Amino acid sequence: MKRIFQTAALLALGLTSLASASEKPNILFFLVDDMGWQETSVAFGPERTALNDVYETPNMKRLASEGMLFTNAYACAICSPTRVSLMTGQNAARHKVTSWTLRKNVAPRENTKVLLPPKWNLNGLQPPGSNVEATIEAKTLPAYLQDLGYKTIHVGKAHFGAKDTPGANPSNLGFNVNIAGAHMGGPGSYHGDKDFSAVWRGGGAIWSVPGLEKYQGQKINLTEALTLETIAELKKTVKEDKKPFYLYMSHYAVHAPWEADRRFIDHFKKKGLKGQQAVLASMLKSMDKSLGDLMDTLEELGVAEDTIIVFMSDNGSPKNCKRNLPLRGHKISGYEGGSRVPMIVHYPGITKKTTRTDAPIIIEDIFPTFLEWAGMKEIPQNDGLSFDEILNDPATDRSQRPLFWHYPNSYDQPAFSSVRLGDLKLLYWHATQKLELFNLKDDLSEENDLAAKQPEDVKRLAKLLSDHLRSTKALMATVKKTGKPVPLPDEVL
């Protein structure tokens, strides 16, 4: 789909714009960390919930009023896999970065009572030719966008590759500019007067956010500091570079540690919120203000109509938070609360105001979509499917396109693989080798297991999931009792 620019109107006003001159839109991908499906005043579910009235995200509402809500958008259930899928267009079963990364050659501690974890790519994503063990090497989304004439800007959380590997630095993965991105999946602190570090609490320098030294010692929130740096870079880019930009605004918020944004915490306490929920509300408000500040900046620079904005979260809300009902489960879980995420797309001149779509999409779909928007003629092979056509037709039928998840690890939550096809979702639990079947249209909360009642659907989806795992050469854990790999879903029927 080609972008519709208001060229005649611009010429009539004697104005020109970066994107209209090149016919390549700017792309702002605003990714939030650990934000649940309902942790917003925008209702993504069929009905408003209590959380929609607790949290305040007016700029998300503003963006939604101008664009399209994706009510069936998914990421992986945990952070590093989502981010590698974004960068490569590969499903987690294929790229094999299936849990979170941090230290080189060191995996997170797992529950090994029943299963021994596979040798997954614990060092994460690396640029081609790195020759680092236990990694995937790939040319990335921003690297391809560079080839298409884009300036690529990374801000905030990276978490692509382990510490002391090339992939720990976003500049090695296709970004012209890297602001505060490194190996870690969370900040040491959100407070400038704690130097954005965990050293003050004995957490070690490995969590310290780099590149923001000028804010250290100040009573400023990390989210605000990142936003100020982003605005400065945007102004420079639009004024000096004269080329389209890809801005990956990847906030550390609202990932732990739970530290209040001092600008907003008293407001939520006065509303009656207490403890961690009040802190989370202030962090969400802080993130939302950043979104609004960036939208305002695009308008001030005269490029708002030339910039596509995509808002998304990298996985569901952690178990420390209030449940995102009606969804079951939480971050890392195989249930919907682990992977269903809020998503909004505003494509000026294309998306109609205040529209919604139920068409399912998943994180690897970002890769081909952004490259299509950037004008790439032949998209590199990937596991995604562009959702561009959905922007023109919210009723686009994707009921026959399967979505897959694969988590063969046992960090915090049980290992699982799953597939969604249409309204049906099949979950396979590796340790117990149990299959569960849910109809998400009738049972969004995944309370009614239909496996015994619909054996033919179980068999059909088990084969579909197993074929995917075979074709991607997915890694499976080892059953301690037998010393053999966990069997595939169609092998236990």
TrEMBL record:
Pfam families: Sulfatase
InterPro entries: Alkaline_phosphatase_core_sf (IPR017850), Sulfatase (IPR050738), Sulfatase_CS (IPR024607), Sulfatase_N (IPR000917)
Keyword terms, alphabetized: Calcium, Hydrolase, Metal-binding, Signal
Record keyword Isomerase present: no
SUPFAM superfamilies according to UniProt: Alkaline phosphatase-like (SSF53649)
Keyword Chaperone: no
Cofactor: Ca(2+)
Sulfatase N-terminal domain segment(s): 25-376
Signal peptide: 1-21
Family of the protein in this entry: Belongs to the sulfatase family.
PANTHER family: ARYLSULFATASE FAMILY MEMBER, ARYLSULFATASE G
Protein name: Arylsulfatase
Species: Rubritalea halochordaticola
Taxonomic lineage: Bacteria, Pseudomonadati, Verrucomicrobiota, Verrucomicrobiia, Verrucomicrobiales
